[in-house]
Design a protein that fits this description.
elongated, 2 domains, Tetracycline Repressor, domain 2, 74% helix, 189 residues, single chain
């Protein structure tokens, strides 16, 4: 087949896949992870179930692909915040605020637990750990944060502390959680 034809087919397949994942995101937002079925995905995407099965073998595979896309999007968002202008402490604060906001949106339940055990989540957590660790080291070097605890330990502390945002009911509570977490990072007098 000519190259243009292959590119057109590949673009079409990518567009259909993205439409499936977009629909899945809407269904999850409307009714939670458990409300998503292959029939509902196909119907709301505007494709037949047979077509959907050409892309994904079951609901779990769709949800895993959707979740993988979500996690990649979150990492991209956090990396953009990390790369802004400002001191390391300002950028760290912004990254932690954004991460806590993301943690607050986390879906609960058995299926969510399954999705969060996937390899892509482990990779994302390692990437995030490194991102926060680097910002902590940079801020400690500038004298803005404590230097008596290794940045790797502090990064674990911060990220685990901020997962508590999942149980918080307001943005103000999330902001307070981040402030308390940052207070624990201040230099020891």
């Amino acid at each position: 087949m000519p190259k243009l034809w292959n590119e057109t087919i590949d673009a079409h397949r990518a567009a259909v896949r993205e439409a499936i994942l977009d629909t899945t995101a809407k269904l999850v937002a409307e009714g939670g992870l458990r409300s998503v079925t292959m029939s509902r995905i196909a119907e709301h995407t505007g494709i037949g179930r047979a077509t959907l099965y050409k892309y994904f073998s079951d609901v779990e595979a769709v949800l895993l692909a959707w979740h993988e896309r979500q996690v990649a999007s979150h990492l991209h968002q956090l990396a953009g915040i990390r790369d802004r202008d400002g001191s390391a402490l300002e950028r760290l604060t912004a990254v932690l605020e954004a991460y806590a906001g993301i943690a607050r949106q986390r879906h609960g339940g058995e299926l969510a637990a399954l999705l969060h055990q996937s390899e892509h989540v482990t990779h994302a957590e390692q990437h995030l750990q490194g991102m926060v660790q680097h910002l902590l080291a940079e801020a400690a070097e500038a004298g803005d944060l404590r230097g008596d605890v290794p940045p790797a330990e502090l990064a674990h502390y911060c990220l685990h502390a901020l997962t508590a945002a999942a149980a918080l009911t307001s943005a103000a509570a999330v902001h307070r959680l981040v402030a308390v977490t940052l207070d624990g990072l201040r230099p020891v007098p």
